Amino acid sequence: PLLFCQPSIPRAIRNHGYIASRMNSLNEFDSQQLPDPFVMALPVSAHTCSNLLRLIFRFQGTMPCVQSNPENFHQQYLDQSWQARVSLIILHVLCILSSPLRTVGEFLEMYLNIIRVNGGFLKTIVKLVIRNGITVPPKDSRCYVSIVGNLDLRENLIEDVLDPGNRGTEGQETLNTDSKAFVVLSTLAAKLAYENEAVIEYIVTRHWNMHFVKFYNCWNDYLCAYTTKAFIFMDKPEEAEFVMVAFRGTELFDANDWSTDFDFSWYSFPSLGRVHIGFLEALGLGNRNQVETFLKLKRNCTLNVREDERTSGLPSSVIKDPSKTLAFDSICKMIKNLLKRNPNAKLCFTGHSLGGALSALVTTILFYKRDFDILKNLSSIYTFGQPRVGDQTLADFMNRSLEQYKVKYYRIVYSNDLIPRVPADDQILQFKHFGNCLYFNCMYKEKILHSQPNNNYFSVLLFPEIHLTALYELLQSQILWLIYGDSFRETPLSTAVRITGLVFPGLAAHSLVNYVTSVLLGDLGIHKKSIKKRLY
Question: What pTM value is reported for the model?
Answer without folding.
Answer: 0.88
